[in-house]
Design brief:
9 helices, rod-shaped, Diaminopimelate Epimerase, Chain A, domain 1, two-stranded antiparallel sheet, single chain, 2 domains, alpha/beta, 319 residues
């Protein structure tokens, strides 16, 4: 590593940068990012019950909607009916009324279906809430989801005005199914959509404890510092490799220059005066040719050093 790296308070600047980046990541993970929305225990139970049937009836329900007849009527259409027994009391944390909130929560979990949810409210009214799963409208079912809330429900209200009582509201389900068929046959090229596989939601993770957050932040900071160190080490190694490669190229170029200077002396000498001089010239030429081969084959610093040594000996012999 570079010994002359700039420092603040005795520490290299890159370390401060790594710590700052780790802190930013920690803030994004634990402060800015929103944890997954927890799923209520009741919604989990409902979805589990809808895995094998289109109707979930909570034990102890009032029986105002006939679950068995509804199940036979709905069949495998992309409709699920939820009949709750316990009142859904108003909650100040809800953005809308509790029945709508619970319906939307279940619709998110049975994403390709329409949900009809019956529950008591604060006024002890057992009424329905209608909502559409986020994937009900798709490439195979290119419809307007709003039609299945406002449009179909409007038809239900008109068609059941004189057919429902406080103790029997099955006609609302019946009318919704018939109107649902009418809308989907009109709007969807594939006809009435069928209910998809219902997958229970994964367990909601526990809220992280303070010590877990601290450990996670320490891990993020340590990981960021380690990453910076690895990047710096990689950069240093790459720079060192480039420096060594440049030095090797320089040495090879110098060897080439020296060989060129020897070429005329060794390969094109003056006519020998006697047999001894002729043998000497032949020996120098042979060594020169072998040295050219060694230069081409030199792949390491040690081999290049050996070539330089042999070249020096050849230069001295050629004088």
């Amino acid at each position: 590593m570079s010994a002359g790296a700039k420092k603040w308070l005795g520490l290299p600047r890159w370390l401060y940068a790594a710590l700052a980046l780790g802190a930013v990541v920690g803030v994004l993970v634990f402060v800015v990012s929103e944890p997954p929305t927890p799923v209520s225990a009741q919604a989990r139970k409902v979805v589990e019950g809808l895995r094998t049937t289109s109707v979930y009836e909570e034990p102890g329900g009032p029986g105002i909607v006939d679950a068995q007849r509804s199940r036979q009527l709905i069949g495998d259409r992309a409709i699920v009916l939820v009949l709750l027994a316990r009142p859904l009391l108003d909650d100040p944390t809800y953005r809308t009324d509790p029945r709508a909130e619970r319906c939307a929560e279940i619709a998110d979990l049975v994403a390709t279906s329409v949900v009809i949810l019956y529950a008591f409210d604060d006024d002890d009214e057992y009424d329905a809430e209608y909502c559409v799963g986020p994937e009900f409208a798709n490439d195979d079912n290119p419809v307007d989801p709003e039609d299945y809330v406002t449009g179909v429900v409007g038809g239900v209200n008109l068609g059941t005005h004189f057919r429902v009582t406080d103790t029997d509201k099955f006609a609302e389900v019946e009318e919704y199914v018939y109107t649902f068929d009418h809308y989907t046959m009109r709007d969807s090229p594939n006809g009435v959509p069928r209910r998809g596989v219902v997958v229970p939601p994964p367990p909601t993770p526990d809220a992280p404890q303070a010590w877990q957050v601290v450990l996670a932040l320490v891990g993020i900071l340590a990981g960021t510092v380690a990453l910076f160190m690895l990047l710096r080490a990689a950069g240093w190694l790459a720079g060192r490799r480039r420096t060594r490669a440049a030095a090797t190229r320089t040495r090879v170029a110098e060897v080439g220059t020296r060989l060129n200077r020897l070429a005329d002396t060794v390969l094109h000498p003056e006519a020998p005066r006697n047999a001894r001089a002729a043998r000497r010239q032949a020996d120098l030429a042979e060594r020169y040719v072998l040295l050219l081969r060694d230069v081409e084959a030199a792949g390491t610093d040690a081999e290049l050093t050996e070539v330089e040594r042999a070249l020096t000996e050849l230069e001295e012999a050629a004088r």
